[in-house]
Design brief:
It is globular and about 40 Å long. It has helices at 3-21, 23-37, 39-48, 50-58, 63-66, 88-95, 109-120; strands at 70-76, 79-86, 124-132, 138-148. Helix 1 (3-21) crosses helix 2 (23-37) and helix 2 (23-37) packs across helix 7. The chain is α+β, with helices and mostly antiparallel strands. The relative contact order is 0.17. It has a four-stranded antiparallel β-sheet, covered by helices on one side. Strand 1 (70-76) and strand 2 (79-86) form a beta hairpin. The chain has seven helices and four strands. It has one domain: Muramoyl-pentapeptide Carboxypeptidase, domain 2, CATH 3.30.1380.20.
Length: 151
């Protein structure tokens, strides 16, 4: 199985759980994945803060580079920002002729549900913005940012 197959399975799993058990069950799945499987991001944020986020998404071997995403990462004035211009997952699903999960929650929502809780555990705020077209489908573009929470 390749990462491309995994994307299709992830998409179909989201659809199945949402239809069979509802949106809360899907949010619970994402919370479990975040807690149990986002350990690399957790370690980097704990050790390096915003620099760890930059390394996770955009470093020499960062997640987005490995996924062949078209993106931009910046860290300036204590604000981390990411922008994805072409999401490889959405591209893969469309290339395979698959309907991208979009039932109120969407395939793209898993990113904010996985990553925001991780960085928020270390006193950072994180915002995630997904670009949708006029019919409510993800365009494959998004942006996110994080900074230290002010107390």
């Amino acid at each position: 199985m390749t990462v491309h197959d995994f994307i299709v399975i992830y998409n179909d799993t989201f659809k199945f759980i949402y239809k069979k058990y509802g949106p809360e069950a899907l949010r619970d799945l994402w919370a479990t994945i975040s807690l149990q499987w986002c350990t690399h991001l957790r370690e980097l944020v704990k050790a390096k803060g915003l620099e760890g986020m930059k390394e996770y998404w955009g470093g020499n071997d960062g997640t987005l580079g490995r996924e062949k995403a078209v993106y931009n990462i910046t860290l300036k004035d204590e604000v981390f920002q990411g922008r994805m211009f072409e999401c490889p997952s959405i591209g893969e699903l469309r290339e395979r002729g698959r309907d991208v999960f979009n039932e109120g929650l969407t395939y793209c929502d898993h990113c904010r549900f996985l990553y925001c809780p991780v960085v928020e555990d270390y006193s950072f705020s994180m915002s995630w913005f997904i670009d949708y077209d006029e019919s409510g489908r993800c365009t494959g573009k998004c942006r996110w940012s994080s900074k230290k929470r002010s107390n």
